[in-house]
User: What shape does this take?
Amino acid sequence: MLAVPTAAAAGTTDLNEAGTVAIDRDAGELLLRGEVVLERGPLEMLVCRVGTKEHESIVAVDTPAVTVHAGLLALGLEPGSAVDFTDGFRPPAGPKLDIEMRWTAADGTAKTADAKSWVRRSIDRYFGQPLKTLPAGVVIPKGSELRHDPRYGELSWYGPMTDAERDGLLALSDDVAFRAAITRFYEQTREVPLDAAWVFAGSRFFHDPATGRRLYGAEGGELVCVANFPAATIDIAERSTAENAGRVYEAWTGRVPPRGTAVTVVLKAAEK
Assistant: This one.
C-alpha cells in the first residue's frame, strides 16, 4: 500500500482526499505522489494507477486518472488528441510537458531527475544478425553472450556490449560479415535515453451502456505512457508499440531508485 501524505505541502493544494495529487499554481506544477514499483523490465507506462499496470510501469500513484486530467486543466492546459491507428499512424498531440522526478535517497539526500533519464531504448534483450557460418577458426569465448545458430544462420547477442567485449570479439577474425555483425551489436546496445516529447493527449470520456455512467478511458492505468495508447492521459509524440515483441523502451536499471521509494512526479508545461 502506498504511503499517503498527511497534509499538503506549503504552497500546494491537494486535488484528492488521499493527498496524492496536488497543484502548485505559482510554480505551474502538478504533483503526483507515488512510489517506485519497477526497476528493471520493458515498459508501457512511466506512471500508472495503483492496481493496474505496475508490472510495466516505473511509478504507481493512488489516484483516479481523471484527477490528473483535471489538474492539467487547472494549470491552463487544453488536451490535444489521442494516437490514431485507423489509417496508418497519427501520433498523439497536445501541449508538451516536462516531467521531473523528486525523491529522497537512502542517505537522506534530496534528489531530482528528468523523467526521461529513467527510461532507455530496450537493450536488455536479444539482438540478431544473419551469418550462415562462423568464420574458420573462430571459437566463441566461454561465458560470452554471443551465440551462433547454424540452423537459422544467425548470430545473436544478449544485452549491452562493452567496449572490451566488442574489441575481444573483433580480434577473433578478419571476416567482413562477422566483424560487421559484432559492430552492429555494439551500436544497437548503446544506452540511449528516451528523447520523445510527452504530450497531454487527454484520453477520452465515454458512456458505459450497461450502467449509463460517464467513464474516463485512462482509468485502466494509462496515466503517463511510453507506448502509444488511445486511452492515454499523457503519451509520447512518436510511434512506440505496446506489443510484447517490440516494446521500444525499458526501465533504466541503476538510475531508477529501489522499489518502494516514495517519488513525487512533477508535471508542468514545457512551453508557454
User: Anything to note?
Assistant: The longest helix spans residues 176-188.
